[in-house]
């Protein structure tokens, strides 16, 4: 279904907003991302950067001769850190672009951060725990904001079936 052409009586959309059906791909996820989506994308990108830094530190310790029980197990753990960091960068970029699948991926990542953050907080490392818990909770709340839900509804550029 296409939107009928606008008539002179239709008011223009507010600044920064588009009507459904406007734009090249149907309008969903198009245009400027809302501030809430930008905040979530930045939180996820910061988490990806933290994982990348942790992977770099882990690699330095591993290859500088720190004792490990299993060298190949440690290499596997390093690979997981790098893969998860790359995945979080992809989630951040595609959330900023407005893809639907990124909301679930970002939510799962925030739940993982909370499972590490709360024990860190209760274990006495208050600053480190707060640095994990506060952004994760903010991102979780913003993931359910109406502007983020409306923006992150792009499904891709698949051709029509018929």
Characterization of this structure:
With 162 residues, this protein is mostly helical. Helix content is 63%, strand content 0%. The protein contains five helices and no strands. It has helices at 35-63, 71-97, 101-122, 126-143, 146-151. Helix 1 (35-63) packs antiparallel against helix 2, helix 1 (35-63) runs antiparallel to helix 4 (126-143) and helix 2 packs across helix 3. It is globular, with a radius of gyration of 21 Å.
* Ends apart, CA distance between termini: 13 Å
Largest sheet: none
Radius of gyration over all CA atoms, rounded: 21 Å
> SSE string, helix = H, strand = E?
HHHHH
Q: What structural class do helix, strand and pairing data support?
A: mainly alpha
Q: Low-confidence parts, pLDDT < 50 over ≥5 residues?
A: 19-29
Determine the strand fraction and express it as a percent band: under 5%
Helix content: 55-70%
Average pLDDT confidence is 83
Question: What is the number of helical segments per DSSP (H or I, 4+ residues)?
Answer: 5
Topology of helices and strands:
Layout: H1 35-63, H2 71-97, H3 101-122, H4 126-143, H5 146-151
Helix pairs in contact: 1-2, 1-4, 2-3, 3-4
């Amino acid at each position: 279904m296409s939107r009928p052409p606008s008539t002179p009586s239709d008011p223009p959309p507010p600044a920064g907003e588009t009507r459904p059906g406007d734009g090249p791909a149907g309008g969903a996820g198009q245009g400027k991302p809302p501030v809430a989506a930008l905040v979530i994308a930045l939180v996820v990108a910061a988490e990806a950067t933290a994982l990348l830094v942790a992977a770099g530190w882990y690699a330095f310790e591993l290859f500088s001769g720190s004792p490990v029980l299993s060298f190949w197990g440690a290499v596997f753990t390093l690979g997981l850190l790098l893969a998860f960091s790359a995945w979080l960068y992809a989630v951040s970029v595609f959330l900023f672009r407005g893809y639907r699948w990124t909301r679930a991926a970002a939510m799962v990542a925030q739940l993982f951060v909370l499972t590490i953050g709360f024990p860190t907080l209760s274990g006495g490392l208050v600053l480190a725990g707060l640095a994990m818990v506060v952004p994760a909770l903010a991102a979780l709340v913003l993931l359910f904001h109406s502007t983020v839900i409306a923006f992150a509804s792009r499904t891709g550029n698949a051709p029509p079936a018929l």
